[in-house]
Design a protein that fits this description.
- By secondary structure, the chain is of the alpha/beta class.
- The protein has a single domain, classed as HUPs (Rossmann fold, 3-Layer(aba) Sandwich), CATH 3.40.50.620.
- The chain is built from nine helices and six strands; from the N terminus they run βαβαβααβαβααβαα.
- A six-stranded parallel beta sheet has the order 3-2-1-4-5-6, with helices on both faces.
- Helix 2 links the parallel strand 2 and strand 3.
- It starts with 12 loop residues before the first strand and ends in a 6-residue tail after the last helix.
């Protein structure tokens, strides 16, 4: 949906989760709710924002219609979630323009001036944040999802210091924006690799919802041929 429901305007906290979701997996479905609980707002609305084309990826994602259909299946039993197609809708005017999160976030802030708006990123996106379009205007609204038995917060902050982009005060601000989440051994990349292997393609794949898996097989997605 391009428009979001009016009920979001009354929320004290709104979480936004952008990405390619190519394909969506169990981590995409479960981790945002974990963050909401960490922020003492377990029933906060979660808005998924599929990108038309990420400015940080060279290859084009699976067509939007398929990704949206898979997301609807993956999130069908996850309460209080919405899929917002704002970035996909913008791309129809000029498909050559990447999905800039700063543009999306400006729309969010204008639409929801009350309460708190946060967007979720991983450790890899934190390290690359200074490469984002107009990152100076949005970084303070990010919440970093840090895997509890995989990522070291101090090592991550040390990496930020070594970049020479962030000052000491900003580093401490980043520290406050980190939330630890359970480590899930799942990724869209590994799922695509399994789907591209004829010996694994039709077998159950860890982290891939059975309904999404059936859709992929029916539509012939992620084949290497």
């Amino acid at each position: 949906m391009t428009q979001l429901p009016d009920v979001l305007a009354d929320a004290q906290l709104r979480l936004f989760f952008g990405g390619s979701f190519d394909p969506p997996h169990s981590g995409h479905a479960s981790l945002p709710r974990t963050i909401a609980e960490h922020l003492h707002a377990p029933f906060a609305p979660i808005v998924y924002v599929p990108a038309a084309r990420s400015p940080h990826k060279h290859s084009r994602p699976t067509p939007s219609a398929h990704r949206l259909a898979m997301m609807e299946l993956a999130l069908s039993e996850v309460a209080n979630t919405w899929i917002w197609t704002e970035e996909i809708a913008r791309s129809t005017h000029d498909p050559s323009i990447p999905s800039y999160w700063a543009t999306t976030w400006k729309i969010v802030q204008e639409r929801y001036p009350s309460g708190s708006n946060r967007f979720l990123i991983g450790a890899d996106q934190l390290v690359a944040m200074h490469l984002w379009h107009e990152y100076e205007t949005i970084w303070q609204d990010a919440t970093v999802m840090l895997r509890d038995d995989h990522d070291d917060p101090e090592q991550l902050l040390g990496t930020l210091r070594s970049l020479g982009v962030w000052d000491a005060k900003q580093i401490e601000q980043w520290r406050a924006q980190i939330c630890t989440v359970p480590t899930l051994d799942v990724s869209s990349t590994r799922i695509r690799e399994a789907l591209g292997d004829p010996t694994q393609r039709e077998n159950p794949i860890a982290g891939l919802d059975d309904r999404v898996h059936r859709y992929i097989l029916e539509q012939g997605l992620y084949t290497l041929a």
